[in-house]
Structure formats: structure tokens, C-alpha cells
Specification:
Structural class: alpha/beta
Radius of gyration: 18 Å
Shape: globular
Strand content: 5-15%
Oligomer: single chain
Distance between the termini: 16 Å
CATH superfamily of the largest domain: P-loop containing nucleotide triphosphate hydrolases
Largest sheet: 5 strands, parallel
Number of domains: 2
């Protein structure tokens, strides 16, 4: 961690943004330069769906053993194929799992000894980010840059990039939900400079 005078105004920050916006780059800066503890909503949700996890039994009971792998773990691809084909099932899964994710995130936040706790989620409302964080920061990158990044890093076609982005929150919705906008379409150094201006005194 760099030798900085840390701004104690912030302790819990929510990070959100669409696919290809480079949230992982921002999280790495916050972890490496500011000693932040990073909590990712999707990682928490995955952990809770492991055998013995808080979500596991309810999900298996509702969606059946057909979503299980031979070792008893939930096949997330099979579950996704099932629920994304039917909006009502997706909503049911969300209602089942989101409260448990929020509860686990809150536990981790409360026990954290880090000077800064950063909670990342692509769906800030469902993740109850406003309840858990002092501020929400939207990581913004123009759509054309996001497409180029996704095609380069994941091998997606431009059409697939646009389909994925269309299924997520719009830029207008992200802006409305957020307190600050971090522009992440330039260099890593430019992004780091924005964070430093906010987080140091």
C-alpha cells in the first residue's frame, strides 16, 4: 500500500457498472493502493450456493437435482439456462438468494479491519448497495470501448457484446443510482488519479 494520507470520510464504497467497464481494474487499485477489502456480490452468491452454503438447499429443493453436478455441487450453467429462459423463475431465484447475499456481505463488512471496504455488484439495487454503503460509484466507459475490450478479452462477437449490454442497466439508470462517476475509458494512471483525488487529503 502506498504511503498516503487516507481520507477517513469514506469507509464503505459501492462499485457498480456494466460489463466491460473495467471494474476489476478499479478494484485492484483500491486494494493495492488503499488497502481496501474487496467484497464481490457474485463471488458471495457463488459461495453461498456451494454444498452447505446458506442458499444451497433452498435452491436445490426448488429447482431440482437436475441442476446438480455428479459431485453434488450446483451446475451454475444449468441453473442459469433454466432461470434465464423464464423471467418468473429468475425472479424467484433472486428473491431466494439476494437477502442471504446481503446478510453475508453485511457480516463481512462489520468484521472487516480494513480502512476501506469496497462492495462490487453489477445490480446495485438488488444488492442493496444503498443500504450497505456510504456512496455508490459508477464506473463509466463508452459503449464502443466496452465492446472492443470484451471482444479482445473474451472473444465475444460485437453482436454478443451488445446483447449482454442491452440486458444490463442503462447508462442513465446507473447514473441515477450513483453518487460519483469514475471515468475508466483512458489509462490506468488516469483512473488512479481520479481515485486519489477522492480518497486522499
Amino acid at each position: 500500500m502506498t504511503d498516503i494520507c487516507y481520507n477517513k470520510i469514506f469507509h464503505r464504497i459501492g462499485i457498480t457498472g456494466g460489463v466491460g467497464s473495467g471494474k476489476s481494474t478499479v478494484l485492484a487499485i483500491l486494494r493495492d493502493q488503499y488497502g481496501a477489502e474487496i467484497i464481490e456480490a457474485d463471488a458471495v452468491a457463488r459461495a453461498l450456493m456451494e454444498p452447505g452454503g446458506a442458499s444451497y438447499q433452498a435452491v436445490v429443493s426448488r429447482f431440482g437435482t437436475g441442476i446438480l453436478q455428479p459431485d453434488g455441487r450446483i451446475d451454475r450453467n444449468a441453473l442459469a439456462a433454466l432461470v434465464f429462459a423464464e423471467p418468473a423463475l429468475r425472479e424467484e431465484l433472486n428473491q431466494m438468494t439476494h437477502p442471504l447475499v446481503k446478510q453475508e456481505v453485511e457480516v463481512r463488512m462489520n468484521r472487516s479491519q480494513a480502512p476501506l471496504v469496497v462492495y462490487e455488484a453489477a445490480l446495485p439495487e438488488e444488492a442493496k448497495m444503498r443500504e450497505l454503503c456510504q456512496e455508490i460509484w459508477y464506473i463509466h466507459v463508452p459503449e464502443e470501448i466496452r465492446e472492443e475490450r470484451l471482444m479482445a478479452s473474451r472473444g465475444y462477437s460485437r453482436e454478443k457484446c451488445r446483447q449482454i449490454m442491452a440486458a444490463q442497466l442503462s447508462e442513465e439508470a446507473f447514473r441515477k443510482l450513483s453518487d460519483r462517476i469514475i471515468e475508466n475509458g483512458g489509462t490506468v494512471e488516469e483512473t488512479a488519479a481520479q481515485l486519489k483525488k477522492i480518497l486522499t487529503i
